[in-house]
Amino acid sequence: MIQVEGLTKYYGEHAAIRELAFTISQGEVIGFLGLNGAGKSTTLKVLGCVLMPTSGRVVIDGHDVVSNAHEVRQRIGYLPDVPPLYDEMTVGEYLTYVAQLRGVTSRDTASRVGEAEEKTGLRDVHGELISTLSHGYRQRVGVAQALVHKPALLILDEPTSGLDPRQIVEMRDVIRGLKGAHTVLVSSHILPEISQTCDRLLIIHKGMLVAQGTEEELAAKMGGRGTIELEVRGDKARAVEVLQRFGSVEVDRASDGLVALTVRASPDQRPQVAQAVVGAGLELLRLDQGAGQLESIFLRLTHGQEARA
Ligand SMILES: Nc1ncnc2c1ncn2[C@@H]1O[C@H](COP(=O)(O)OP(=O)(O)OP(=O)(O)O)[C@@H](O)[C@H]1O
């Protein structure tokens, strides 16, 4: 779906991105992660045909973004870091306007606007003026304008920026709901905002791609086995004994017959761990991939280290 080779962009003397190379398959939801100034927006602008690369090549659905930008634009929906909204229009009027601008036929416009509103949870504010909407709803309108022409690829630049925690959860649900119908590329500088939504992460630092893969792949590359967190009801000593078969065990909490533990073992082993706990007569209340592991990988990649290719 997307092939990027040697992508470089200079602003004057300053290289905002250097020699980026990655591929994205159809239907994937990809998180583009990096600290402020890492080069995320610049990359997404090139993919969105808003900015010309200095060198390198980007091919989207078989079309080159430089020589065939018109074809590419028909296949993508782009939410820039500041959504291009018209305050004096209602949500419905604005989405209708954008749909027509993107070549949706008059016959299909109402249904496409309806679908976009449905996917982004905007049905109830169809007739509201954009100027009266909260920031969270404005971001949803930004996403809706990007998908109203049913593009194969959606590029969302920091869609959770400035949202409160509840709105972030809602936006995550919106993005998850897009999976299947679209390939999605979503950027953020905050790891938890995208790690739970995306199939795979591309980590960019100082304009270079420093790592890419699923959470498990990144953990393996960084030499960590990962951790599994559990909460069980039953005897603490028995729980530790059973779990030690998988790796070293830490008891995080133990009170009133409830024991919270962390096992240093690959998250791939979650099914076997669950079976062993239940087989030992303990009640399994919770079992998760250890939180914070990806966070520490991200911090190791982006703090106190020079970027590497
Ligand atoms: N129009 C511009 N002219 C000059 N330098 C720019 C321009 N836009 C971005 N830059 C610089 O290029 C680098 C990458 O910026 P970019 O906006 O792509 O990063 P980002 O990862 O999206 O960060 P943020 O999350 O803060 O938007 C930064 O050093 C930034 O200062």
Automatic annotation (TrEMBL):
It holds the Pfam family ABC_tran. Coiled coil: none annotated. GO terms for molecular function: ATP binding; ATP hydrolysis activity. The keyword Magnesium does not apply. Residues 2-231 form the ABC transporter domain. SMART domains: AAA. InterPro entries: AAA+_ATPase (IPR003593), ABC_transporter-like_ATP-bd (IPR003439), P-loop_NTPase (IPR027417). CDD domains: ABC_DR_subfamily_A. It comes from the Bacteria. Keywords: ATP-binding, Nucleotide-binding, Transport. Belongs to the ABC transporter superfamily. This is ABC transporter, ATP-binding protein. It comes from Myxococcus xanthus (strain DK1622). The lineage of its organism: Bacteria, Pseudomonadati, Myxococcota, Myxococcia, Myxococcales.
